[in-house]
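For reproducibility, we list the full input for the uridine-diphosphate-N-acetylglucosamine complex.
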Amino acid sequence: MNAFEIHGGKPLKGEITPQGAKNEALQIISAVLLTAEPMTISNIPDIKDVNKLIELLGALGVSINRIDADTYVFEAKDINIDYFQSAEFKEKGGSLRGSIMIVGPLLARFGKAAIPKPGGDKIGRRRLDTHFLGFEKLGAKFVYDAENHFFNVDATQLKGTYILMDEASVTGTANIVMAAVLAEGVTTIYNAACEPYLQQLCKMLNRMGAKISGIGSNLLTIDGVKSLGGTSHRMLPDMIEIGSFIGLAAMTGSELTIKDVHFEELGIIPTIFSRLGIKFELRGDDIFIPAQDSYEIDTFIDGSILTVSDSPWPGFTPDLLSIVLVVATQAKGNVLIHQKMFESRLFFVDKLIDMGAQIILCDPHRATVIGLNKVNRLRGIEMTSPDIRAGVSLLIAALSASGKSVIHNIEQIERGYQHIEARLKALGADIRRVDVQPKGH
Ligand SMILES: CC(=O)N[C@H]1[C@@H](OP(=O)(O)OP(=O)(O)OC[C@H]2O[C@@H](n3ccc(=O)[nH]c3=O)[C@H](O)[C@@H]2O)O[C@H](CO)[C@@H](O)[C@@H]1O
Ligand SMILES: C=C(OP(=O)(O)O)C(=O)O
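The corresponding predicted structure, in tokenized form, follows.
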């Protein structure tokens, strides 16, 4: 079993370039199924989740040509719809959450699709109702095969309609948009999610010939077209990686430059890190973070304790709350972290407490962090990463802690962070991959 062994407590220094956005890549790569023409997609991150989706498309019959390290040409000319019935599909399709987004394009183009209950992080209940309610509204028949945990949808012709989404689901919106672009007539989606991932998807679909308006808002209008053509698309830098690197710099007192961040697409993310007291400047399109001995958490105007909570875009992404939490453990001041979306994403704080952090887990959704102002450093320990963002938070904690830490279950981290060990080493981190079993196994 692979684990990271880290000797922490040393400041890092240098430049780091964020990978292409994971959650955008999963949408964009699914969308190649909407056309028989070639699609050239670049800045694709080389991470487990994305590679698994690409493999899945290959198994469905999409021709895949990797033309350089991060650029692929996809051509979905001959799709093998019968692959849905195979045992291999049951295994591959269910192993990542992003695979759910092949359903919308397949339904739109071939009139049917199926998907095993998808994987992804165990961070609480993650229902998919929004996706299937949307498909049903467009006229598809939905059957859930409870015995095999299989979702099936089919439709002879999808028809445009008004959809009030029951929640602003990110992957749900992407799926319904991809189904609606080839539906007959006009579809209006209200309470749509509008993360940059979705804005990028919609812009790409329009370049393919779709007619989507309202991009960037929670009201999308889609005028269905008969067919879509090929195009090229480049992924934005991963905003969650960028936030993770800002947190890493602050926690480890490092001077870091995060390159080519597309600052204008980061929404409220930089503001939240500023409110934690972290200093940085924008140099061109790079974020420069000077080495900081201390950073002080802001309070609300009335002097009360700051709360950082997640909400759908343009609110603060839930995927960065674990990072904010870990960074706060070494800040001066206190903060309440309120994770509204997922009920099991804060449970990793027991590991931070073992490392010496002062945190009160108030309930599954809220944790109060009492910052140590770097007076008491965290201590290295052995731990297991429960999910992707907790994993990176623990990695940041370990890099800042004195002594040795071992992090198990690093597959979780690697499903979303490209070549993380080599990139951290290049900044001077003492991290290596070891093959050890967690204690008690
Ligand atoms: C592959 C991918 O893109 N994954 C992202 C996507 O997952 P995903 O698309 O699966 O997440 P959803 O947007 O569907 O929402 C996730 C959870 O949040 C709850 N919810 C959602 C919307 C809302 O307004 N209120 C609310 O409570 C839902 O009930 C659900 O349980 O979006 C999540 C929310 O940004 C991110 O954490 C995931 O990294
Ligand atoms: C929860 C996440 O991913 P997924 O939706 O793929 O589980 C994430 O990227 O933080």
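The radius of gyration is 22 Å. The pocket of phosphoenolpyruvate (ligand 2) is lined by residues 23, 49, 97-98, 120-121, 123, 319, 388-389, 416 (CB under 6 Å). Both points were considered when choosing residues for closer inspection.
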